[in-house]
Amino acid sequence: MTWLAIFRLGLIQAALGAIVVLTTSTLNRVMVVELALPALVPGLLVALHYAVQLSRPRMGFGSDQGQRRSPWIAVGMAVLALGGFGAAVGTAWAATAPVAGLVLTALSFVLVGLGVAASGTSLLALLATRVAQERRAAAATLVWVMMIMGFAVTAGLAGHFLDPFTPARLVLVSGCVSVLALSLALVALAGVENSASVLPRPAEYETRPRFLQALQQVWLEPDARRFTVFVFVSMIAYSAQDLILEPFAGVRFGFTPGESTQLSGVQHGGTLMGMLLAALAGRRLGGVFFGSLRSWMVGGCFASALALAGLVAGGIAGPGWPLRANVFLLGVANGAFSIAAIGSMMALAGQGRAAREGTRMGLWGAAQAIGFAVGGLLGTAASDLARLLIGSQVAAYLAVFGAEALLFVVAAALAAHVCMPVAARAAPFPQRIPSSPREDVDERIAHL
Q1: Is the pTM above the cut of 0.85?
Q2: Which of 26, 201, 395, 405 could be a cystine partner for 305, CB 3.0 to 4.6 Å?
């Protein structure tokens, strides 16, 4: 696959991110602050869309069985765009008809989950199977950086056009984002798979197992199983503040809906910088080695814990605290940690039994989705519970930020032992003898 084709897949990922950031971030703020709903309501909705993504392994398995993955990506993006717009309509409707509006919003979040599962999993599987092994790490970085750019650009522009806030303006902005994102994705996807190099189909493609059999085969692979556990735990830590950061900014610092949406853009901008730093520093530059994927995962988790401790300090200090800078540093730490995890994912996707790349990506995507769902739900539920017990909404948010910092410390400990054989955990680079030339190349990529 050429770099132009990889760039076009990155545009699709950016379009996906543009829809998701409005659905899971801006609508959450509107429900909690403007509609005065308990934080648990958007927490349950976001958890629902992640729960639906348990279908990721099945989606990946389905794309494994066909000759082309493009149809899965195109249909998934269409479903995602419809769900994103429907969620905005439902949220606006809930201002006057709470029950009907929330029912429509819930159904729309189901569509968002299905769309992300189909398009996101198939896109990653396409990268893992059609990108040359020596390009996989760089391709993963490019595609993810473009997704974060989609987050950041959309959050910034949408935040600008949402003020002064009205429900009708929310629907208009969401509709424009959905139409533009879907159009961009379909144009970028056209012909990209046909232009990719056609790889020989392994014999495993001709043996079509049942889904559960294929999933069991992947789960029995030690590297795949170990990485799945790490992804699940780390994503709980990563996502616990997602649904309470904007309400926290509104309650403690007096941010408007537009300003808090722009704050989300600041965080995603930091994430983009962290990804770029980790991607560049994880290579040998001028003969100097700046760290392995493992070290960036561990360091990113610890840095995220420190940034969350800063939010706790900011909540105590009040409006004089440099909140935007603090959130930007949180994004940098998150980006450094996540790009290292993504690089490991791409390196591991082609290991093990052939014709299971989509199933592998689906398994890790499902672990990520469950972790996000649990983290988001625990974050919002804990903030509501703490507010009842403590009597202060701000103190409740700070308690969640502190607990999340501790979770990141745990995730750092797990990251220290991920993506390497048990016998080689004490060494910075595993030294076991590869069983094939392909495995040797994959290991070299995994530990760049």
Answers
A1: no
A2: 405
